[in-house]
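Researcher: I'm comparing several assemblies side by side, and this is the next one on my list. It has 572 residues spread over two chains. Same procedure as the others: predict the full complex and return the structure.
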Amino acid sequence: MNQNLIDYTLHLADTTLILAQRNSEWCGHGPILEQDIAITNISLDLIGQSRNFYQYAAALINLPITIGTANNPADLATEDSLAYLRTEREFKNLLLVEQPNVDWGQTILRQFYFSVYQLYLFQQLQNCKDEQLAAIATKALKEITYHVRWSSEWVIRLGDGTAESHQRMLAAIEELKNYTGEFFIAAGYETPMGIDFALLKQQWEEKTKAVFEEATLPYPEKTFNQSGGKTGTHTEHLGYILAEMQYLQRTYPGAEW
Amino acid sequence: MQLQDLEKIFQDKIDKEIKIEPKDWMPDAYRKTNIRQISQHAHSEVVGMLPEGNWISRAPSLKRKAILIAKVQDEAGHGLYLYSSAETLGTSRDEMLEQLLSGKAKYSSIFNYPTLTWADMGAVGWLVDGAAILNQVMLCRTSYGPYARAMVRICKEESFHQRQGFETLLVLSKGTDEQKAMCQDAINRWWWPSLMMFGPRDSESTNSDQSVKWKIKRKTNDELRQQFIDMIAEQVKVLGMTLPDDKLKWNEERKHYDFGEIDWDEFWAVVKGNGPCNKQRLDARKKAHADGAWVREAALAHAAKKKNRQLQKVA
């Protein structure tokens, strides 16, 4: 069993799921109907990606069991057992994605930071030696390209828009500035994946700076990198997200839905 | 042309099943009735996102979560088509929204009931969407063209939602004892409110006659309600559940189910704003609108600046 590959796949799955969960909080509460639909759509794309990763992780975990004789279906991992029955110390998502929505500005900035990172990461994963991860990344890139465009446009709109929207974007930059460094700090399980983190960081910074410039927003130079999400040490927010998300599976163990 | 000639041409078209289009002459009352009905329908889609949205964060599996999000998103889309249809009659989305937020415009009372358990996602799909579809199938042939065309598209999605709702309940009905109880409880709570969706009895309804003549409505409230009861009374057997009405019984002579009396006091209380969630639903819409004000202003300001910069470049 390739534990690094499993952990890495779970990291990708958890990150996309938690961001989907956060974005979906907007559903029915967006600033205008068209954008309510847009953010919800991104949420759906991310859930789709997370399901692909969870299903793959489950297959990898089940491999030794299915080869062996113990075939009790309840022992097999599934996308749902991985999403709903792991604890806050087992989740491997990035700290950024569990941060609260706060307002449309912070939600947009969080999405922008993540989508730009995901774009360049998945471009590398397309050529990953693991064919399944490469295939999922390739499929997701079409969606991610749109997420980058949509969130970039909103960063520019809000940065350039009114005094209030500019101020709110400054506040969002301040709130999130310590949560992007984690993108580029490799966890143990990431090392064998052959990701060029230096290139990733360079591409991410270039794109972010370009969009910030157009948005008349200052790029935050001095940051401290909070990290630990990739290995299960989270901010206090994650426990509440999971408590809510997992409530039915935890209350009625073993039930089918 | 004389007014009565215009009215005659208009009614002739309707009688010949020719759709009325935005630029056609139409009586003021026809325009007003359509604006009222279409905007009310649009508001219902948008407010209707709230009770189901309530369970998105807690959906019990990734598949269910994706289905639920997609469904609520479809409702937002329906809201958009319907606002656009109403706009063809000379009202603006802002005006309609203003009327919703001020409480002047109504939306379907059903969304003033709370969604208390996961089974409510099934019951809402099966019963609420099921009741809505009967109305909407009829509206695919309504006389105002843009409304009828919007409804054709909406109906396709709604019937999908209804099947998903039924399937959600079907899984629960085959599940653990707790899930079965959850399923029956949701049916018990949603049954009577879904019958109320068809509106007052024909003898009490103020808008029906003229609407039928103008083919805005093609069936009466009571006809649609009976059709719904006949359909659901059969489907509930597949679930192995019951409907909470001891008077529900097949009438061989009428070839319809007989049923008990709706609690009309409750119906009017909810219509008048005293349902369990009237305040919460409207507050949620007001909050979203108020919280979004700076975003909409920023988008307009940026668009104006961008246009200015382009003009300066050209000059």
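Model: For your comparison table: Chain A touches chain B through 50 residues (CB under 8 Å).
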